User: Which sequence fits this backbone?
């Protein structure tokens, strides 16, 4: 009972939120309701006219053709007005539905932009895409069906009931007595389908996530011959989706036969009672035909509404998942008194810093670092020791759990994120390019750069030669992340050129040359050396030969600095760094044995 109450509360909360979005278009909602009322009234008026026409057919030679002609004209007029009203009503319903969907998608996308990285790291990208795209589309289908059929169906039920009571009260009461059966059927279906459709939506998101991951990493899958394993994983998810979908479809498919059975009961009851009443002279044949038409129209909306309820359950389940994303806690906003970081000197301090991605898994503990302006700091250590985490903290992609980080003497939590990140230039191992021209990608951080500045930066990064070999040079359009037109090394050169064009006061190079050949790397190291002069630089590298010239080398292990000093000094100590450095020039077996210890 408690679980049922919580579920109903969740559904009601979702409905209230949907109504809040719809309320913005209250004028069109009111217009749609008025047009629905006009449609229903005219639709119910036609059976009365038809009954009157039947009563004018008294027998052979006793047909009132003049009266029938007038009735036919009124029927045609009513049908034309009904068609026009339905056309305008559908326009209103489509406008309301797709503007509500636009509002929800815009809000969901805005939330994605301000979500903390810990949410994006903890959720598969395909599952998030499924919520914003597939779930919203499913919600749109249910909402449109609700507007199109729910309003009209409810008004038809009440309108038909009113006309039946006016025509013949006893027969109308027979219809009313059988009506609760339809409500029981609708309630049973709605109760069963909500949880099933919600589970279906979640499994579909899991499936989308797997497909997105496999498509994005197809080369890795083929390299390690994981095709069969991935197919088996997809098959397991697909089997779960099939089982859940079959259950959901089974219960939702009960709607049509169950409501048709109720329809037949009502129609048969009206026919039997009406026939007896007609024999006794209590109702004319024309009125009985009118009543039979009403009985059919009265029960038909129950059939439609039951189907709408099923679709609405699916739509509400999808809406709940969308609202879960929208309701996620956003990253902590900048303080109201946060200041802009200007005239950056590059003095960076980390005092007693503690941080962990998961509270139960400690990572960085009591981390202390002081970097003077213009210093080159290299961070080395085995995989998982916290090197990239330090970069994430410096850029404030994550906030420290305890302690503080200062730039030029100011806690970075008191600095706007935009100005802090503008002070850094980053080149990462994972490249990021957007769809557009080479020029647009290079000038992303400095849109007002001149062509001469752009070409100079590209030449410094040794990217100019391959750019000029492209079809349109700097105006060549590339796909997202370079598409298939650029190699990984070329994409990394473009990212390096982008930073060289901006020349920010602080630099972060995280495996910045990992995809570049050795000869080009030596040339770029010289360009980096010139660029880093007078700039505070943080260098993360696995190839230790690339960080020999660093002013300070921080050796990390298990989230702590275990050694610190220059390259020569650390080698003389013969400690962890010396072993790590020498292992790169030892045979493969010796290297593996060292790293395992």
Assistant:
């Amino acid at each position: 009972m408690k679980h049922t109450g919580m579920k109903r509360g969740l559904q009601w909360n979702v409905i209230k939120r949907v109504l809040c979005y719809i309320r913005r278009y209250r004028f069109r909602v009111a217009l749609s309701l008025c047009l629905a009322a006009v449609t229903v009234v005219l639709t119910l008026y036609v059976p009365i006219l038809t009954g009157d026409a039947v009563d004018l057919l008294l027998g052979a030679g006793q047909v009132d053709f003049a009266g029938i002609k007038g009735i036919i004209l009124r029927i045609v007029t009513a049908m034309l007005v009904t068609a026009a009203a339905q056309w305008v009503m559908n326009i209103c319903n489509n406008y309301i539905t797709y503007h509500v969907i636009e509002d929800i998608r815009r809000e969901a996308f805005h939330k994605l932009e301000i979500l903390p990285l810990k949410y994006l790291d903890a959720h598969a990208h395909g599952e998030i895409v499924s919520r914003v795209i597939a779930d919203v589309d499913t919600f749109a289908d249910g909402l449109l069906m609700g507007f199109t059929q729910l309003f009209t169906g409810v008004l038809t039920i009440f309108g038909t009931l009113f006309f039946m009571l006016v025509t013949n009260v006893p027969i109308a009461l027979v219809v009313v007595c059988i009506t609760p059966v339809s409500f029981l059927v609708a309630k049973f279906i709605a109760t069963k389908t909500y949880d099933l459709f919600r589970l279906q939506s979640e499994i579909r998101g899991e499936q989308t996530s797997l497909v997105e991951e496999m498509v994005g990493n197809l080369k890795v899958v083929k390299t390690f011959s994981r095709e069969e394993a991935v197919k088996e994983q997809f098959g397991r998810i697909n089997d779960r989706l099939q089982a859940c979908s079959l259950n959901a479809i089974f219960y939702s498919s009960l709607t049509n036969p169950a409501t048709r059975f109720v329809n037949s009961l009502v129609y048969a009851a009206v026919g039997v009672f009406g026939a007896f009443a007609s024999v006794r002279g209590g109702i004319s044949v024309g009125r009985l035909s009118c009543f039979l038409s009403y009985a059919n129209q009265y029960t038909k909306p129950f059939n439609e509404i039951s189907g709408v309820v099923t679709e609405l359950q699916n739509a509400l389940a999808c809406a709940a998942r969308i609202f879960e994303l929208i309701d996620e806690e956003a990253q902590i906003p900048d303080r109201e008194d946060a200041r802009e970081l200007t005239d950056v000197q590059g003095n960076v301090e980390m005092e007693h810093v503690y941080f962990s991605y998961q509270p139960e898994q400690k990572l960085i503990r009591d981390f202390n670092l002081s970097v003077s302006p213009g210093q080159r700091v290299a961070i080395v250590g085995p995989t998982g020791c916290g090197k990239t985490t330090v970069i994430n903290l410096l850029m404030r992609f994550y906030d420290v759990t305890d302690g503080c980080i200062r730039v030029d003497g100011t806690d970075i939590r008191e600095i706007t994120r935009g100005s802090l990140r503008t002070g850094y230039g980053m080149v990462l191992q994972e490249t990021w390019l957007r769809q557009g021209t080479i020029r647009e990608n290079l000038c992303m951080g400095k849109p007002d750069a001149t062509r001469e500045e752009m070409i100079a930066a590209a030449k410094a990064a040794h990217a100019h030669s391959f750019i000029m070999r492209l079809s349109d040079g700097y105006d060549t359009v590339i796909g997202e992340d370079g598409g298939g037109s650029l190699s990984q090394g070329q994409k990394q050169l473009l990212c390096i050129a982008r930073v060289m064009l901006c020349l920010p006061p602080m630099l972060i190079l995280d495996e910045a040359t990992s995809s570049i050949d050795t000869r080009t790397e030596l040339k770029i190291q010289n360009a980096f050396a010139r660029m880093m002069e007078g700039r505070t630089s943080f260098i993360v590298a696995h190839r230790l030969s690339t960080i020999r010239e660093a002013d300070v080398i921080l050796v990390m292990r298990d989230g702590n600095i275990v050694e610190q000093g220059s390259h020569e000094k650390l080698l003389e100590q013969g400690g962890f760094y010396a072993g790590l450095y020498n292992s790169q020039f030892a045979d493969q077996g010796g290297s593996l044995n060292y790293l395992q210890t």
